[in-house]
Structure to design on (234 residues):
């Protein structure tokens, strides 16, 4: 198929709020530690509280320290593996599902580029049924950790698969640390979706190279911007 334009999306905190996955993962860890629902819920709640209280990325370390008997013999890495490998409870908003299908039916190339541990990202893709909505998905961990964003490799591969270049493509993401550097360098248009509840909602880009060319504060606003871009794109 010959496409004239393409929309390439990030996954986490773009097509769904990443907090959904965190809640699901903490629940899986809680259930791993105890078959009792109330006790499992307590462990999950504690993990959330550590994130809020400390914000140091060591929630599992704090859990092991506070509950040595319940976690005896377990390591942080083992809890991380439970978190990453669990089948998450996630939901793709119906607005996204209908809009993506509409674009695809209209002949727009749809791609997805996402970082993260492969097993976790693949589980998200499966649960959200994204393979039926996108023409091509690149989970960068398949290429190797060194090719995670902001490396260009995944973006270059998306150009090869789609047959589209630079101004024919637009990247939609949330992370101003890494999402927009490579596509901007390749001449793509870039849009930041900035929503309440995103992990990096308040973060500002550290350099001009990392700054997206446009920003949307709601899914409706983003869809409107993309529709305008699609009408004007050559």
């Amino acid at each position: 198929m010959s496409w004239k334009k393409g929309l390439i999306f990030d996954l986490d905190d773009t097509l769904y709020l990443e907090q959904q996955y965190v809640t699901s993962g903490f629940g899986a860890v809680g259930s791993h530690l105890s078959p009792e629902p109330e006790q499992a819920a307590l462990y999950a709640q504690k993990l959330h509280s550590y994130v809020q209280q400390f914000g140091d990325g060591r929630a599992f370390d704090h859990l092991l320290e506070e509950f040595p008997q319940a976690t005896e013999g377990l390591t942080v890495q083992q809890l991380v593996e439970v978190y990453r490998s669990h089948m998450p409870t996630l939901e793709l908003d119906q607005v996204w599902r209908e809009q993506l299908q509409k674009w695809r039916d209209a002949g727009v190339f749809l791609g997805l580029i996402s970082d993260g541990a492969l097993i976790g990202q693949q589980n998200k893709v499966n649960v959200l049924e994204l393979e039926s909505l996108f023409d091509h998905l690149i989970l960068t961990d398949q290429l190797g950790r060194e090719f995670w964003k902001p490396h260009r490799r995944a973006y270059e591969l998306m150009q090869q698969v789609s047959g589209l270049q630079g101004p024919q493509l637009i990247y939609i993401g949330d992370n101003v640390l890494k999402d927009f550097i490579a596509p901007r360098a390749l001449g793509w248009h870039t849009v930041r979706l900035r929503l309440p509840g995103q992990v990096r909602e308040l973060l500002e880009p550290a350099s001009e190279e990392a700054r997206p060319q446009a920003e949307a504060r709601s899914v409706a606003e983003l869809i409107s911007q993309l529709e305008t871009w699609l009408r004007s794109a050559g």
Q: What stands out?
A: The radius of gyration is 19 Å. The chain has nine helices and six strands. The CA atoms of residues 35 and 96 lie 35 Å apart.
